[in-house]
Amino acid sequence: MDYQVHTLANGIRILFKHSPSTITHCCFVVNAGSRDEPEQKEGLAHFIEHLVFKETEKRSTSQILNRLELVGADLNAYTTKEYTCIHASLLKQHLERTIDLFEDILFHSTFPEDEMEKERGVILDEIASYLDQPEEAIQDDYEELLFKDHPIGKNILGTPETVSAFNKADIKKFMAATYNTSEMVFGVFGDYDLNKLIKLFEKYFGWIPANNVVKTRIAPMANAGKELILHKPISQTHCITGSSAYPSKHEKRYGLLLLNNLLGGMGMSSRLNLEIREKHGIAYTIESNYTSFSDTGIFSIYFGTDTEKAEKAIRLVNKELKKLRDNKLGTLQLQQAKQKFIGQIALAEENRMSLIIGMSKSLLDFGEVDSLEQIFAKINAVTSDELLDISNEIFDINSMTTLLFEPKE
User: Among residues 217, 148, 225, which one has the least CA distance to residue 183?
Assistant: First the structure.
């Protein structure tokens, strides 16, 4: 994967991938997320992500929002357990105004009290809306069950109590402790000359003082082998089952990614979809997911179904997991699984915004970005023996944690 990296004196890195297009995609990724929040400050990273769009030393909220929208650009942001990301898509001639805006909102936001109060209301409404969607809420409740009393298990949005209590001092303290300049990457995917790009970034970001405060992240211990049933005002049963899994740098990560895709990944031909939906017709949505973090990971299977069918669905899920624990994939099965996964990764490269964000995160996590050929080589190197070992380690029925949302009677 052809890309170039330039590091400013303060540690901020510029990641550039050339594309002969009139459209530019760019992002600013900071290695600071909800897991870095102090106790009783859950939701603070997400709160800050909202507030940086509100007012700066030289711009009002409307000026911030209009700065890119008036030239047809798209501006957005999101927060995860480990990252905060601001991103924009724009015509190539508007890159400087985008760089200017990013620098302004990230390093000159004033966090006025009136805007904080307004945004509290927005986020409290977001929390309430989220809780009304059991297929979404169960994911967060499951992570909290799996990583009980650890920051990585906390809801990214926070709670009504924590969000209501944030003040400006909390924001300043959090940013000073987590917004490490050597853990910031500005990614650009577009048609530019690298030397001109460097001059632009030196102009807008070169003045920023280095902040190299080292974060301390404590690896979580998973609470394995639990089952919890919660009764909710819903019409269906929702179930999620799984376990802790490999961190992002683990040598078995690609094997589990391949297994996850085979079991319940994208497309209609996954094993779980064919068995539970197509053959038995007892779940509209069934999927598996594997998310890796810097020091742990989560593998999970989710489905929603009528309450009287839930027990059968769980039995069928366990049956598919047992097959993977007991039987090695044949040569043809393994090759087909690899071809499918590789094809999906190649197609995903067409989403240019996701690509530049993914590259920026890779630079933060690994100090480099693998090419497609390198990724494909790692997938092709996975053996059926390795998949069998991973299946017995991750899909061990005795160490899996299960959460059920059932309708109230």
Answer: 217
Query: Could you give the dihedral angle defined by the CA atoms of residues 109, 110, 115 and 116, in that order, rounded to the nearest 10 degrees?
Result: 90
Q: Which residues pair with 109 in a beta bridge?
A: 56
What pLDDT digit, counting tens, does each position of 288-346 carry? 999 999 999 999 999 999 999 999 999 999 999 999 999 999 999 999 999 999 999 99
Gap between the Cα atoms of 143 and 81, Å rounded: 11
Tokens of 343: 């094809």
- Whole-angstrom distance, CA of residue 199 vs CA of residue 224: 51
Please return the burial class of 360, using the count of CB atoms within 10 Å of its CB with bins 0-12, 13-18 and 19+. buried
Cα gap 196→193, rounded to integer Å: 5
CA 308 from chain centre, in angstroms, equals 34
- Identify the burial level of 158 via C-beta atoms within 10 angstroms of its C-beta, where 0-12 means exposed, 13-18 middle and 19 or more buried: buried
- Rounding to the nearest 10 degrees, give the CA dihedral for residues 28, 34, 37, 39: 170
Nearest to 405 by CA among 265, 165, 267, 239: 239
Task: Return the residue matching tokens 């936001």.
Answer: 109
What is the DSSP code string of 210-268?
P--PPP--PPPPP--S-EEEEEES-SSEEEEEEEEE--TT-TTHHHHHHHHHHHH-SSS
Reference 300, options 316, 288, 314; nearest CA is 288
DSSP string, 335-351: HHHHHHHHHHHHHHTT-
In degrees rounded to 5, what are phi and psi of residue 298? Answer: -135, 125
Indicate whether 409 pLDDT > 80: no
* Domains along the chain with CATH numbers: 4-205 (3.30.830.10), 227-407 (3.30.830.10)
8 Å CB contact between 294 and 228 = no
Q: Which residues pair with 300 in a beta bridge?
A: 242, 289
Count other C-beta atoms under 10 Å from residue 230's C-beta: 15
Identify which of 197, 1, 14, 8 has the alpha carbon closest to the alpha carbon of residue 92: 197
Q: How far is it, in rounded angstroms, from Cα 15 to Cα 237?
A: 45
124 token code pair = 């409290």
Angle made by CA atoms 291, 295, 297, in degrees to the nearest 5: 25
The total of other beta-carbon atoms located within 10 Å of residue 142's CB is 23
- Give the integer Cα–Cα distance in Å for 58 and 104: 8
| pLDDT tens digits, one per residue of 386-399 | 999 999 999 998 88
